[in-house]
Amino acid sequence: MAMGEKTGARVTIRDVSREAGVSIKTVSRVLNKEPYVRKATREKVAAAVARLNFRPNLAARSLAGRRSHQIALICDNPSPYYVYEMQLGVRDRCAADGVRMIAQPYDRDSPRLIADIEALLDETHVDGVILTPPVTDDAAVLAMLARRGVRHVRVSPGDDDTSAPATLIDNEGASAAMTAHLLALGHRRIGFIAGHPSYAASHQRQAGHARALAEAGVAFDPALVRTGDYGFGSGAEQAAALLALAEPPTAIFASNDEMAAGVLAAAHRLGVRVPEALSVAGFDDSALAGFVWPPLTTVRQPVRELAYQAADLLLASDPEADPERRAVAYELVVRGSTAHLAG
Amino acid sequence: MAMGEKTGARVTIRDVSREAGVSIKTVSRVLNKEPYVRKATREKVAAAVARLNFRPNLAARSLAGRRSHQIALICDNPSPYYVYEMQLGVRDRCAADGVRMIAQPYDRDSPRLIADIEALLDETHVDGVILTPPVTDDAAVLAMLARRGVRHVRVSPGDDDTSAPATLIDNEGASAAMTAHLLALGHRRIGFIAGHPSYAASHQRQAGHARALAEAGVAFDPALVRTGDYGFGSGAEQAAALLALAEPPTAIFASNDEMAAGVLAAAHRLGVRVPEALSVAGFDDSALAGFVWPPLTTVRQPVRELAYQAADLLLASDPEADPERRAVAYELVVRGSTAHLAG
DNA sequence: TTGTACGCGTTATCAA
DNA sequence: TTGATAACGCGTACAA
Known about the structure:
Chain A has 343 residues and is of the alpha/beta class.
C-alpha cells in the first residue's frame, strides 16, 4: 500500500497555546473541560481554538491519556436497516460528546469474531463497546470483555443478567399488544409464526402472544403456531401451511416483517385477499412494512432510540453505579393489512 | 463522561523485541513488511508476535509514522441496504491489508457536511477516503479533499472527471439491457419512471431506456415517461398515472426497486394483475426485489463489489499513476413480475 | 542487515 | 489557577 503523503502544516495544540498566550497544558485543560481554569482564560483559549479551527489529534490523545474518545459499535446483519439505524443513533449521541463512533460490521457466524473484537480493542483502545443481537448474547464475547475490563452496553439482551447496562423494548408486551389488537378486531383464530429459536426475542414474542390469548379467554390451538426463521421464505411457507388447515386462521401474526411479507406473498399466490379474508401483522424490524401491499400492520421498534440510549449509558452513566436497564417505548402501527373481521 | 479505566498491561512492541531477542526497530520492520530483514529474523519476530498475540497500537503508529492504517467511508442514506453493503465491501478489502475502516454515516442534507468531514480528517488522519453518492458528486467536498491532498476514490460518480479514481457500473447499458429484455418479451408500450433528477444515475438510466427503444426501432412516446423521486410513493403515483392513460403500457420499468414496489402497490390497488396484465421491472438498489409480490425483475448492482474495488483503488493502486475508472458488471435478474405479452 | 536516538501531539504528574 | 517536564508506543533518520 502506498498512500498519499501527509498534507502540510496541521494546527496543533502548541499553535493554539501561542495564539492564546497560555501554556499547552492550559489549552488541554480547556479541551477536556477540566475544572480550575479561570473563566477568562477558558474563553481566551476557546476563541483561539475557534480562530485556528483546531481539532485535537485523536491518536495523540489516545496515546497520552487514559481515553481514546472513541467507542465501538459491534453489529452484524439481522437487517441492514437495523444496523444502519443503530449506527445513526449511536453516532448522534457520540457527536454530543465529541466522541467518535467506530462502527464494526461483523458476519453473523464468523469464527474469528472474538479475535476480531480483541484486535479492535488492542488497536484502537476504544473507551467502550456497544453490542447488538446476536452478539449481545454471546457468552464468550461477554466473558472476554469482562476479563479485559472493557465497559460495554448490551442492546436487546436475551437474559436478565445485570452485570452490564442494557437497552431494550418489552418484546412480550409488544407482542401481547398486537394480539390484543387482532382480538379487538374480532379475530378468534389467529395464526402465529415464531422467529428463529436462537433469538431471545423470538421466545419473548411468542410468550406475549400466548399471554394475550389467555387474558382474553381465547383457547390456544397449537395447530395455529408455527416456527419460521425470520426469513421471507419461511413466512410464505408457514403461512401456506396455516391457510391449508381445515379451519384456517382469519389473521396471521408473524414475528417480524420479512416473514409477514412472506405471508402476504403466500396469500397473493393462493388467491386469499388481504385484508378482506386475512389480516396480516408483524414486527417492523427491517422497514419493509410500508413497501409491500397492503402495507403491514406492525409493532415498530425504535431502533435509533435504542442505540442512542445505549450510547448514553456508555458515555453519561456513572461506571460505578449499578448497571441500568433502560426500556424504550414501542409503537403499534396499524395499516391496511388488517381489518375488522367481516360478519 | 467517565469511562472505565485502562485494563492492565498491554503487549507492546518492546515486549515482542525482548521475546524475539532483537531490537524494537527490527520488530517494526517486520510489522511493516520492510525489506532488508533476514528471513530467519523475520520468522523469529513473527513467532514472537504470534506467541504474545501482539497487535500494534494504531494511535502510536499514526502519531509516529506517515500512515494511520485507517481509511474513511463517507456515506449517507439512499438506502440502508446500500450503505451496509458498501461497508462490508470496504471492510473486506481493508481486512486483507490490516487497515481499519472508519465508516461515517452522514445525513444527506446536513449543512455541516464539510465541517464534519474536515473534523474527521483532522482527528483521525485517515490515509484515504471513499465517497458514495450523492457526496461523490459534491463539488465542495471534492475541492476540499483536493486542496488538502487527501487521497480519495469516488463510487458511482456522475461526471467523467478523471482527477480521482472511481468505481461504477454502466447505468445506461444496464437500463438499455432491461428495456431490451422487455421488448424481447413482446412489449411495445413500456412505461418508464425516472428517479430524482439530482442523481446522475437517474439521467443515465433514462438515457439507456431511450437508446434501447431507438435501437429496436420502437417509437418513443413522451406520455410513457414520468419522473418520480426514487421513493415508494412516487412509484405508486406515477404508475397510477400511466395506467390511467387511454392507451396504458403493458410494462412499467421503474428506475429503482422502491418505485417498482410502488408500481406493484398501485397495480394491486387498481386490480391490474401482475404479470398477466402488466410486467414490472426495476433496479435492485435496496434489496426489496425479493420481498414483494410478485418478486421484481431487476438489474442488480453489485454494491459490495463496487465497494471492494473502491477500497482496492485506495489501498493497492499506485498513487502516482493516472486515476483509474473501474467498471463492475451488473446483472439482469428475471423474476415473476415480468412475462411474455399474451397474444 | 541491524540498532540507537529522537520526535510525533497530547495528557499526567508534580511543582509553583 | 497555571506551567514545566516526562511519558505514551511506535516509525524515521541515520549510524553501525
